[in-house]
Design goal:
By secondary structure, the chain is of the alpha/beta class. The protein has two domains: 6-110, Transcription Regulator spoIIAA, CATH 3.30.750.50; 114-219, Pectate Lyase C-like. It has helices at 25-37, 59-73, 106-112, and strands at 6-11, 14-19, 47-53, 76-83, 115-118, 127-130, 134-137, 146-149, 153-159, 162-165, 175-180, 184-187, 190-192, 205-209, 215-219. The strands form two sheets. Strands 1-2-3-4-6-8-10-12-13 form a nine-stranded mixed β-sheet. It is elongated and about 55 Å long.
Length: 223
C-alpha cells in the first residue's frame, strides 16, 4: 500500500521527498520511518530535496526535519520547496513511475549542497529553503514570498518579499538582488525592515552585516 503522507521520487536533478498533505511534523516523521523501513535498497548518504504543498510547518520544524533525516537516516537535505497547493509544480504533478537512484558518489554529495537553483518566480505564500547552502532565484520573489538559506540568497530579479540568509548563524552571508525592495531582510539573527513604499534604485544591491552589527545595503559592484 502506498504511503499517503510522503513519497520518494527520482528525477534528473536527484531524489525528491514529496510531502503532500498538511500534516504535523510528527506525522511526517512517522510516515518517513514507515516508508524507509519498507524499502529494500539503502539510501544512506543520499542527497534529497523536499517538496511540499502549503504547510503548517514553521522554519524551526523544517530545520528539525532536516536534522531528523540526517541523524536517523544519514540523508543530506539539499533544499526545501514549499508551494501553494494550487501551484502547478512539475514535481508534485509528475507521474509516479520514476525509479529511485542508488546513493550518489561521495565526491558528488558535497557539491550537491552548495547551492539550490530555482528557475521560477516565488509567489505570495511560497517558501523556498536551502539549509545546506545558498539559494539562487532565476526570477522574482513577490510580496508574501520567502527565501531561506544557510548561505547566501541571490535573486536574479526583484526581491519584494522576505529573505533570510545565514539561517544557521553564518553572519558572512549576503543577500543580493537586481532590484532590492524587500518586506524584510534577515542575516543570521539580524533583521532589517526597509521603509514601506521604497522604490527600486535602478541598480543591483547587496545586503550584509556591517561592522556596527546592523544590516547595511549598498550598490553591488562585484564580490
Amino acid at each position: 500500500m502506498e504511503n499517503a503522507v510522503v513519497k520518494l521520487r527520482g528525477y534528473k536533478d536527484g531524489l525528491h521527498l514529496i510531502i503532500r498533505p498538511k500534516v504535523s511534523l510528527i506525522d511526517i516523521q512517522n510516515a518517513i520511518k514507515e516508508l524507509i523501513s519498507g524499502m529494500n535498497q539503502p539510501l544512506s548518504g543520499t542527497s534529497v530535496h523536499i517538496d511540499m504543498s502549503t504547510s503548517p510547518l514553521t522554519s524551526d520544524d523544517l530545520r528539525n526535519l532536516e536534522t531528523h533525516l540526517s541523524d536517523n537516516y544519514n540523508l543530506v537535505v539539499s533544499g526545501f520547496n514549499v508551494l501553494d497547493e494550487n501551484d502547478e509544480s512539475p514535481i508534485l504533478a509528475a507521474p509516479a513511475a520514476h525509479s529511485i537512484p542508488q546513493g550518489l558518489p561521495a565526491d558528488n554529495q558535497q557539491d550537491y549542497g552548495h547551492a539550490q537553483i530555482v528557475r521560477q518566480t516565488i509567489r505570495s505564500g511560497q517558501t523556498t529553503s536551502c539549509l545546506t547552502g545558498s539559494v539562487i532565484i532565476y526570477g522574482d520573489v513577490n510580496p508574501g514570498g520567502e527565501v531561506i538559506a544557510s548561505g547566501d540568497v541571490i535573486v536574479l530579479g526583484a526581491l519584494r518579499g522576505n529573505a533570510h540568509a545565514g539561517a544557521h548563524g553564518k553572519l558572512t552571508s549576503v543577500i543580493m538582488a537586481m532590484e532590492l525592495v524587500p518586506l524584510q531582510l534577515q542575516i543570521g539573527s539580524y533583521v532589517n525592515r526597509p521603509p514601506l513604499g521604497q522604490k527600486p534604485r535602478g541598480y543591483p544591491e547587496i545586503a550584509r552585516v556591517g561592522a556596527e552589527d546592523i544590516i547595511i545595503v549598498e550598490e553591488f559592484i562585484k564580490f
